[in-house]
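Summary of Year 1 activities. Much of the first year was spent building the evaluation harness for sequence design. The harness presents a backbone, in tokenized form, and records the residue chosen at every position. We chose the following record to illustrate the format because it has been used consistently in internal testing since the harness was completed.
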């Protein structure tokens, strides 16, 4: 199943949650992205709220070369960085991958000079997602 919203794109994968996390990290690396942050939402909800939550991980992915290029165009763009990639288990038990769509997110900035950088980031995220089954 593919999914798309006004701000993201994603898909379900035939992998367990841990397998999907390992695989997306690996293929993001192949596309030049490093993981700057990793937030285990379920663990934080358990710690801070005392509730159990489905497996849900937020990965802050960054391609340094493209981030440098984008910040050179629009210095305040850091509020939209890094590109978040999430991995979670839905109500049906499927593992889901979703990424912010940088081409859509950059529209809010209103600077057409960012279009090509955003398209390249989107292309590379898309290639990473295609490599995870």
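For this record, the design step produced the sequence shown next.
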């Amino acid at each position: 199943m593919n999914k798309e919203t006004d701000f993201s794109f994603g898909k379900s994968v035939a992998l367990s949650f841990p397998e999907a996390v390992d695989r997306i990290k690996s293929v993001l690396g192949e596309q030049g992205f490093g993981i700057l942050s990793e937030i285990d939402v379920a663990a934080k909800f358990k710690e801070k709220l005392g509730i159990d939550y489905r497996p849900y991980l937020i990965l802050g992915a960054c391609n340094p070369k493209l981030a440098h290029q984008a910040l050179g165009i629009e210095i305040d763009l850091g509020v939209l960085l890094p590109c978040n990639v999430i991995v979670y288990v839905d109500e049906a038990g499927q593992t889901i991958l979703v990424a912010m769509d940088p081409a859509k997110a950059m529209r809010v900035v209103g600077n057409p000079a960012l279009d090509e950088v955003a398209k390249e980031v989107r292309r590379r995220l898309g290639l990473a997602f295609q490599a995870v089954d």
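The helical segments are 17-30, 41-49, 64-73, 102-105, 115-130. Quantitative recovery figures across the full test set are reported in Table 2.
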